[in-house]
Amino acid sequence: MKIALIAHDKKKDEMVALSKKFEKLLSKHELFATGTTGLQIQEATDLSVYRFKSGPLGGDQQIGARVSEGEVDMIIFLRDPLTAQPHEPDVTALIRLSDVYEIPLATNKSTAMLLFKELENLAEI
């Protein structure tokens, strides 16, 4: 699968922790991420991550374009709902595209863990 990983600043540590916890699983998939999130994942794991621009510089839109082209199968987007984001319209557009193209999207750690555990279950079949 092609999995996009995105995290707002206050959620990057959570994304890194998730990536470490599910590193073996994620290593079997093609990973994409916004710039800083991808860099932090690469620094903390042995995962290969294709990095787009950072979110505020268009990374969310780049991933959205991949969604519209059928090149993303799942999105883990750890959002910070308590901090205003200058690129909120881009975030909303990405969420809308995931709904339009029926791409599984997790916006918090608990949902991300459920999606990753389901991927593990599918791998066992």
From TrEMBL:
**Which residues does the Swiss-Prot or TrEMBL record annotate as the active site?**
D60
Catalytic activity line of the entry? dihydroxyacetone phosphate = methylglyoxal + phosphate
Q: What is its EC number?
A: 4.2.3.3
| Positions bound to substrate | H8, K12, T34, G35, T36, T37, S54, G55, H87
List each copy of the MGS-like domain by range.
1-125
Query: Which keywords belong to this entry?
Result: Lyase
Q: Which GO terms describe its biological process?
A: methylglyoxal biosynthetic process
The record's SMART domains line, in alphabetical order, gives: MGS
Q: Which GO cellular component does the record give, naming just one?
A: cytosol
This entry's Gene Ontology molecular function terms read: methylglyoxal synthase activity
Q: What residue range is the signal peptide?
A: none
- Domain of life according to the entry: Bacteria
State the protein's purpose. Answer: Catalyzes the formation of methylglyoxal from dihydroxyacetone phosphate.
The entry's family comment says: Belongs to the methylglyoxal synthase family.
State the protein's name.
Answer: Methylglyoxal synthase
User: Which species is this record about?
Assistant: Vagococcus teuberi
Record gene name: mgsA
